[in-house]
């Protein structure tokens, strides 16, 4: 059974955390989380920390739980922010920001659960051998030297195993990786004009826009691929 994502402690009782303390608290699970991301999520009304008389943000336990829910729904369910906002408006947050109990939404990644696996755990969960992992690393589909693997790596290895069982090994799939790299560059280029170096919220908005455009591009790719497969049948 897949190991669940690590659970960091959240403030108890009436304790309030500064934005720096929140970033420190969540760093292990979300090392790329930044001030700009938090400012953007606040601007989008997904989180609403209190403000002191001096204007400093202060996060309660409920604020941290809500933030965890948003971040995990993005990472583990690949939900766009508008879908997360709709869910929060309808259901709120239950528990410590866990997303494993969310009712499934349409899409190929809707069933992905939060995971944090070491290399041995990844081999066990995917039932592949070390040779396939090394081949995935050598062709740039898995990052070398990772200590822990998350939902994305688990999905990559599982898909690679299915393809390898039918004779499509990582060396045959380099064009897929290079295509993804070009697409990611294209989406970052589209989103970049929305970012401004001096505006933290705008930088967060650009990142989230690229992620949401990526989800739409993924849906387009899947639809076109299905159409081509059926046409060739």
Automatic annotation (TrEMBL):
Source species, domain of life: Bacteria
InterPro entries recorded: DNA-bd_dom_put_sf, MerR-type_HTH_dom, MerR_fam
Pfam families linked: MerR_1
SUPFAM superfamilies: Putative DNA-binding domain
This protein's record includes keyword DNA-binding: yes
PROSITE patterns: HTH_MERR_2
Entry keyword DNA-binding: yes
Chain positions covered by the region annotation Disordered: 189-208
Residues in HTH merR-type domain copies: 38-91
Keywords: DNA-binding
PANTHER family, sorted: HTH MERR-TYPE DOMAIN-CONTAINING PROTEIN, REDOX-CYCLING DRUG-SENSING TRANSCRIPTIONAL ACTIVATOR SOXR
Protein known as: MerR family transcriptional regulator
Organism of derivation: Brachybacterium halotolerans
């Amino acid at each position: 059974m897949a190991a669940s994502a690590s659970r960091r402690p959240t403030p108890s009782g009436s304790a309030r955390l500064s934005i720096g303390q929140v970033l420190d608290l969540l760093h292990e699970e979300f090392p790329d989380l930044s001030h700009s991301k938090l400012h953007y999520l606040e601007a989008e009304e997904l989180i609403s920390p209190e403000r002191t008389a001096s204007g400093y943000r202060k996060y309660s336990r409920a604020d941290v739980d809500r933030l965890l829910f948003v971040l995990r729904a993005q990472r583990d369910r690949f939900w766009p922010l508008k879908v997360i906002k709709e869910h929060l408006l309808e259901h709120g947050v239950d528990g410590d920001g866990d997303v494993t109990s969310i009712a499934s939404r349409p899409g190929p990644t809707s069933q992905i659960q939060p995971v944090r696996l070491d290399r041995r755990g990844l081999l066990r969960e995917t039932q592949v051998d070390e040779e396939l992992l090394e081949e995935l690393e050598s062709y740039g589909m898995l990052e070398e030297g990772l200590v822990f693997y998350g939902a994305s790596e688990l999905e990559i290895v599982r898909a690679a195993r299915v393809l390898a069982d039918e004779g499509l090994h990582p060396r045959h799939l380099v064009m897929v990786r290079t295509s993804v790299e070009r697409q990611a560059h294209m989406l970052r280029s589209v989103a970049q004009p929305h970012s401004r170096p001096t505006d933290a919220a705008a930088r967060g908005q650009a990142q989230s826009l690229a992620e949401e455009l990526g989800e739409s591009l993924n849906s387009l790719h899947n639809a076109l691929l299905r159409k081509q497969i059926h046409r060739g049948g």
